Amino acid sequence: MSTSAFEAFLARIYVDPSARARFKADPFAEASHAGLSPDECAAIMKIDWVGLELAALSFAKKRHAKARSTRPSLRARVQGFLCSVLNFFL
Amino acid sequence: MNVTKDRVGLGWRPDLAASIFERLESIDLLEVIADDFFDGSRRGRRALKTLSSQVPVVLHGVGLGLASCESVQSKRLDKMARLFDEVRPEFWSEHLAFVRAGGLEIGHLAAPPRTSQNVEATAENLSRAISVVGSKPLMENIATLVDPPGSTFSEAAWVSAILEAVDCNSLLDLHNVYANAVNHGYDAREFLKKIPGSRVRAIHIAGGKLISAPDGSTRLLDDHLHDVPDPVFDLLEEIAASSPHPLTVILERDGAYPPMPQLLAQIQRARLCLERGRARHTATQKRFA
């Protein structure tokens, strides 16, 4: 138990809403399709479904916040665009 | 790390920088998020070195993902090692969490299934981290909204097994303990009794908020956007009453920043909790002497 495949499956249902929806619709099929052993499939089917949704939502917010903080500011993007236009004509 | 007395500090955040410098005499140390400086400019790293020459600094990692069956990424370890070398912090810390798997970045700290295989893999990752960075990290317990499926260890047993396997000390996040206790239905004080108290060297305190779940229940979200609640201060006193070592306490706040006096009041309250706990510790020792 707790193989890399199991962690990878958890990561997928945390970050990918469509994978999570497929897992909710047919947990065993989705888990076994991902290569989990019968024991691992049985274990993951006992997941706290409410906790899963809340955790996925919380992770998504964190990813969006991180993406916002690492994205260049509007001013930097405008400056970059103007530089590339100038470079093109010079 | 040669700490001789209890201290209380604050998590360094750029938004708080000016207020921190104004009130540096009220803050014993600063905790800096290491990952923010991994790819930072030379100027930023120089500023961090200057900061560490003015006030004790500790580095806190959030992205290594050491508690995983996947191997920790070498490039991230190298970045941590380089920063550690440059800043020479009193200590560094990381989380008992996985943050990526199967090529996917989760974006935050996730609890892995707590199994013997995970304990072995985490110990291996930690040993590599210790070897590359050249210093043992303090390992922090995390808050989780979903109890990891497939777990065969309780959280306390899992944390203890990993610390034991690599002979590491811990950074105990008391709001994470409190949040998990609320969300997964156990007694936070009982949890504290089950982890090796002699390995606790540092403490995080923070606040969170109750969120509504689709089934009508509520869960406690560890968002670091709110003041430290009373139960967390109570847990701090408990730890101070039992810990044989000096403790380094860090107040974490990641946004919705209140005026600095409000943060300093929480730092001061933490100091009082430590004093009360230590007084209890001394009284107990005298009773059994």
Blueprint of the fold:
The complex is a heterodimer of chains A (90) and B (289).
Chain A: H1 4-15, H2 17-25, H3 27-33, H4 38-44, H5 49-70, H6 74-89
Chain B: E1 7-11, H1 17-22, E2 30-33, H2 35-38, H3 42-54, E3 57-60, H4 74-87, E4 92-95, E5 98-101, E6 104-110, H5 116-133, E7 138-140, H6 155-166, E8 170-173, H7 174-184, H8 188-194, E9 200-205, E10 209-212, E11 218-221, H9 230-242, E12 248-251, H10 260-288
TL;DR?
The complex is a heterodimer of chains A (90) and B (289). With 90 residues, chain A is mainly alpha-helical. Helices cover 81% and strands 0% of the residues of chain A.
Number of domains of chain A: 1
Q: How would a textbook summarize the main sheet of chain B? A: 8 strands, parallel, barrel
Rounded to an integer in angstroms, the radius of gyration calculated over CA atoms of chain B is: 18 Å
Structural class label of chain A: mainly alpha
Principal-axes geometry of chain A comes out as: elongated
Helix content of chain A: over 70%
Report strand % of chain B: 15-25%
For the report, how would you describe the main beta sheet of chain A? none
* Quaternary structure of the protein: heterodimer
**Judging by the overall fold, what is the CATH architecture of chain B?**
Alpha-Beta Barrel
Low confidence ranges of chain A: none
Helical coverage of chain B, percent range: 40-55%
- How far apart the termini of chain A lie comes to 62 Å
